[in-house]
Structures are given as structure tokens and as C-alpha cells.
Amino acid sequence: MSVPEREEPIDVTADMLAPRPDERIDFEQGMRYAPPATLALIAVLVSVFTWQVATGALANRAAIIAAGALVRDRVLAGEWWRLASAMVLHGSAEHLLGNCIALYIVGMACEHALGSARMLALYAASGIAGSLASMLSGPGPSVGASGAIFGLMAAVIVVLVRFRDVYHVRDKRIALVLAGWAAYVLLTGLADPMIDNAAHLGGLAAGALAGLLAQPCVRPKIVASQ
Known about the structure:
With 226 residues, the chain is mainly α. 59% of the residues lie in helices and 4% in strands.
């Protein structure tokens, strides 16, 4: 038996969207459990948090602001870089851990569907959108990657709904788990003023828009010859 060969991803085209339930492509097929772009993002977040701990950036409000937290007055004064820097900062080890777990799950699916480059671009765009929404809703300071993560999640859900005649999702509970996680975070944010729901909603909106516009990569079945 020859060694199976994996074909390169192909873009979805209009003629592939006709309802053909028996020919739908298994969405999870070929999904990597060590997605490089997602793991690289997690490595960046962990490295930055290590720097925060080492430099005392978690000591107090002034320290986290000096480290690059999002503060509306500072941004309006010209420190636009804070829209991006706040995305890689976290307020505690628990905050970092929760975001890294969520990023691994939704990042793996999004990177599989859109490819590494587009997933990274979407992550950055959703994070910036979340920062802008956060800045408009309150003075800050605010930190965290959850706005960007919400964007990835929204994009995956929208892509799977748009291309439901192309993709077959083996475990239908995936969407419920993602929706449940998002609802939990948003509801927790209503009860805890320290949670920045505006950033979550801003990232969610950006990700949903990207999902409506994106043409995902479809990975064909691996063909083996004897």
C-alpha cells in the first residue's frame, strides 16, 4: 500500500454549495492538534505575562497602565499603540490561563478553517475592534486577549453556518459549547464590573463580519491507492 498523500487546501467555490449531504467534507479531517499560529499566540501571551510578573507590572493600577493597558485618555492623547498592547497583557494568572485555554480551542478550529495567515489577521483585527469598543464604553484601564478570542469564535460559527452544505461537523455539540462559553463570559461580565464586556462584543462583531466575508479553506479527503 502506498503512503497516503494529503492534497493542498482549496478555496470554496459557488458550485460546491449545492446541497449534497452525502458529499459534504468532514470539517475535523486534517485538523492539527498543534496549530502553529495558535500555539505561537499562546507563547506570546505567556511570554508577555512572564515579563509582567518580572517587572512588577501587576503591582497596582499605575504599573499596569505603564505596561501598556488600554486607557481612553491616553489613547486620545496619541498613544494609539495601547489599542494593540492591551491585547497581550493580562491582569492575573487565572485571567491568562482562561484565555489561553479558550484561544487553543477556537484558534485550532479557526486556523483549520481559514489558514494560519488569515487567522492571525482576524485575531489582530478582532482585538483592535474589541479595544475600540472598550475605549468607547469606559475610561479603562483594560487588558486581555478575550476580544480577539471572541472574534475567532464568531468567525468559526458563522463559517460553519454559511457552509453547512459543504462541511460535515461530526460533533454537533461544538457549537453549543462555544455558545455556552460565550454566554457565560458575557453574563459574568454583567455581574462583575472588572470584566470588559464591551471588548468581547466588539471582537464578536468583527469576527462575525469576517466570517460573512471569508472564503474558507476546505481540505479534501485523503486518497489512498493500493
